[in-house]
Amino acid sequence: MDKRSPPTTHLTDAERIDRLRLIRADNVGPRTFRSLVRHFGSARAALERLPEFARRGGASRPQRIPSEADAHAELDACAKLGVSLIAPEEAGYPPRLTELDDAPPLLGVRGVIDVLMRPMIAIVGSRNASAAGLKFAQVLAHDLSNAGFVVVSGLARGIDQAAHRASIEGGTLAVLAGGPDKIYPPEHTDLLTAILRHGAAISEMPLGYVARAHDFPRRNRLVSGSSLGVIVVEAALRSGSLITARLANEQGREVFAVPGSPLDPRAAGTNGLIKQGATLITEAADVIDAVQPIMGRPIDLREDDVEPLAPDPDTAERDRVVSLLGPTPVQLDDLIRLSGASAAVVRTVLLELELAGRLERHGGGLISLI
What we know:
The structure is a single chain. By secondary structure, this protein is of the alpha/beta class. The chain folds into three domains: 13-108, no CATH class; 112-295, Rossmann fold (3-Layer(aba) Sandwich), CATH 3.40.50.450; 315-369, Orthogonal Bundle (Arc Repressor Mutant, subunit A), CATH 1.10.10.10. It has helices at 13-23, 30-40, 43-56, 68-81, 131-146, 159-166, 189-198, 215-225, 240-250, 268-275, 284-295, 315-323, 332-339, 343-355, and strands spanning 83-86, 107-111, 120-124, 150-153, 172-175, 200-203, 229-232, 254-257, 279-280, 330-331, 359-361, 366-369. A nine-stranded mixed sheet has the order 1-2-6-5-4-3-7-8-9, with helices on both faces. Helix 8 (215-225) packs across helix 9 (240-250). The protein is globular, with a radius of gyration of 21 Å. The protein starts with 12 loop residues before the first helix and ends with a strand.
């Protein structure tokens, strides 16, 4: 088992409401949430300052911030569906997910919560999988489940559903791209019902939210972030499973790949991962041997090390930073160097722009104006 002291924190009702209102506010994502709470000391204090920051960033319209009544209504609706909104410091939040700097501030959890505290291995792959790929995913999932691991996947067609079905009895985790009540694909609603008897489902999105294309990479970071490692069974060269593998690398997770025929385009991505250094596997024992040493180490929970913000950049500093931004993505470090402003000032201006809906963040720390 992963070594970690059991969480003892339990949010008050008021704290949960404040956090829910903040993460559901316009233009507030997990990283922005964390910066705001770190800077202002609490979600409630951050909520009070949101309109001011958005205005300073040039918001073209008032920022939508859910009311307390809205938050209470969401909590009540979640309770009716059997969904608990859990914070990273509370029991039931996947331990390895807490390591991420973009861990969801509140995670919607449905099913057997104890499953989330066990060691996890993700299995992902092609939606248009071959018969051999589906069979091997089932064998891997079954063997890993029998060895005590929770199999994590995204409830998609192909490899995902095969992995879930083969590990239902031992407990499997479905990570949803949409809200807890919006299952994609719809034909997997019955599969999710079966999963919830022994396993669980998680989502960071609100009830009623229908997943769009850009939500699946965001979902994939939770698949990899919850796990000790990610197994890619089949993946074409432009597969979303390769995004999951890249995210796993960035998160410091193990990446495993199943080799395939060079003549099958569904194996081109997995064969490429092996060339790039992913661990080649042919059976569950290969995965178990690789993660055993990791399981013996205590989980290094992330410290609250968000860089400080400036109290209130002056107009000249703000204008200088904004003038350097455009539609072409740039690195934060370059922006700090070229602007001549302090790192705290630049981060504050960027946060203002983000809350105003004017900033876009890209992979690799790149940023641009919308």
